[in-house]
């Protein structure tokens, strides 16, 4: 934010300029929207924030949105946190089609840390859901923060937050209503991107982040995730068999969710699941009564000592790199716009010259213009006259007035009137 490129611009003037540019050219460059995102903290009121936010939506519809740099996503997230608009930021993150803002490891860590310290567990869980839907779990700190966010939300959420009531159905009056649609979607549910229920989103996140973790904490989180997803079939049977065979100790918090599993329609499968749950409950529960969240917080502390300083240094290097690249891209964009402006001016001048030349040379080239309609294939039927007839017609029309005057009889000269006798 200390670069001369940013300090020399004002949010109000920049947003108005970009709005006019979009209305005229239907495009906003990647570097311009990045600068706007960095200037959002200068918004004086919510009206100015709304105006800037509308430009983020417009940019999403441009071809330049494909060239958005990682700095743009970071800038939007940091700017909304700086102005205290966390709820609006969560809404923007969820509306990928409208805004196209994605979290990375650093922004996700920052957001979840912010919300966990504020005890805003639903918002922290929303960030964890976004990380799991993007299928990013390489950073151990991000993974631990996501698990803590999900478990804290699960522990502190009200029943209606976990399972919101279904919207009331409209009364059927018996009348058939036909609605015209462009296409019909296939009725398909992928159990990942189509999830909307908060409880199942928590289960999906827990299962995703711990899918390859064979430790006691990882197995406990994965088992809880499977239970929240209501996996009461063969998948759950295979998983519980692995727990029994590998003699893994699961946390006691998991058992409560396993006991809430709905019954399977297949009676034999349902009995098998319940038998395995009883065996895990009897032989494979960890004697340590420490809550699962406490184990994860302890693990997070060790990971911070190992990776925090490296991540901070890496982020500082990225910010410096982004600043240098931004200055270069801004100069290139200025040059591109200048070339485009000069090109449009030259094209307008050439068009004016062509129109003027067409007026000056019309009669000389009229024969070629008329005959081109058939020679160029514009008209399919044969011409109603030959080329020689066309030339004669043009000559007659050119000399029509002179030819007509020569044929008129000359008026007789009348002298003074004769006197009457």
Strand content: under 5%
Supply Rg.
Answer: 38 Å
List the total number of helices.
20
Sequence stretches where pLDDT stays below 50 over 5 or more residues? 401-408
Ends distance: 116 Å
> What structural class should be given to the helix and strand makeup?
mainly alpha
Mean pLDDT: 82
- Count the beta strands: 0
Which series of helices and strands comes N to C? HHHHHHHHHHHHHHHHHHHH
What gross morphology would you assign? elongated
- Share of helical residues: 55-70%
Please summarize the sheet with the most strands.
none
Task: Note down, in words, how this protein is organized.
- The chain has helices spanning 4-7, 11-25, 30-39, 46-60, 70-82, 86-94, 96-99, 105-117, 121-133, 140-156, 159-162, 198-209, 216-228, 234-246, 252-258, 267-283, 292-360, 362-375, 387-398, 400-407.
- The chain is an all-alpha fold and 421 residues long.
């Amino acid at each position: 934010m200390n670069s001369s490129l940013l300090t020399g611009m004002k949010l109000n003037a920049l947003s108005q300029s970009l709005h006019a540019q979009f209305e005229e050219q239907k495009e906003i460059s990647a570097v311009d929207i990045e600068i706007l995102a960095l200037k959002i903290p200068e918004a004086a009121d919510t009206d100015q924030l709304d105006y800037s936010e509308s430009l983020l939506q417009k940019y999403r519809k441009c071809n330049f949105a494909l060239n958005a740099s990682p700095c743009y996503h970071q800038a939007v997230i940091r700017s909304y946190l700086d102005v205290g608009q966390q709820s609006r930021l969560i809404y923007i993150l969820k509306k990928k089609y409208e805004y196209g803002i994605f979290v990375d490891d650093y922004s996700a860590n920052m957001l979840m840390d912010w919300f966990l310290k504020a005890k805003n567990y639903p918002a922290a869980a929303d960030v964890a859901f976004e990380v799991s839907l993007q299928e990013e779990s390489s950073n151990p700190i991000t993974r631990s923060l996501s698990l803590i966010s999900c478990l804290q939300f699960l522990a502190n959420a009200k029943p209606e937050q976990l399972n919101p009531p279904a919207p009331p159905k409209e009364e059927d009056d018996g009348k058939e209503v036909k609605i015209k649609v462009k296409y019909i979607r296939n009725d398909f549910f992928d159990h990942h991107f189509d999830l909307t229920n908060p409880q199942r989103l928590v289960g999906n996140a827990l299962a995703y982040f711990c899918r390859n973790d064979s430790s006691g904490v990882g197995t406990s989180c994965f088992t809880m995730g499977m239970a929240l997803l209501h996996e009461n079939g063969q998948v759950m049977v295979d998983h519980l068999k692995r727990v029994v065979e590998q003699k893994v100790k699961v946390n006691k918090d998991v058992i409560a969710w396993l006991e809430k599993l709905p019954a399977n329609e297949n009676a034999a499968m349902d009995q098998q699941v319940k038998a395995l749950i009883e065996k895990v409950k009897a032989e494979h529960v960890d004697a340590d009564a420490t809550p699962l969240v406490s184990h994860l917080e302890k693990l997070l502390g060790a990971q911070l000592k190992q990776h925090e300083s490296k991540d901070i240094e890496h982020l500082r290097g990225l910010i410096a790199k982004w600043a240098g690249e931004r200055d270069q891209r801004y100069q290139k964009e200025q040059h591109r716009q200048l070339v485009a402006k000069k090109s449009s001016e030259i094209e307008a001048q050439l068009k004016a010259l062509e129109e003027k030349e067409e007026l000056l040379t019309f009669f000389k080239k009229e024969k070629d213009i008329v005959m081109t309609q058939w020679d160029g294939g514009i008209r399919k039927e044969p011409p109603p006259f030959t080329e020689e007839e066309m030339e004669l017609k043009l000559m007659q029309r050119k000399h029509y007035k002179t030819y007509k005057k020569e044929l008129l009889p000359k008026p007789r000269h009348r002298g003074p009137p004769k006197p009457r006798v």
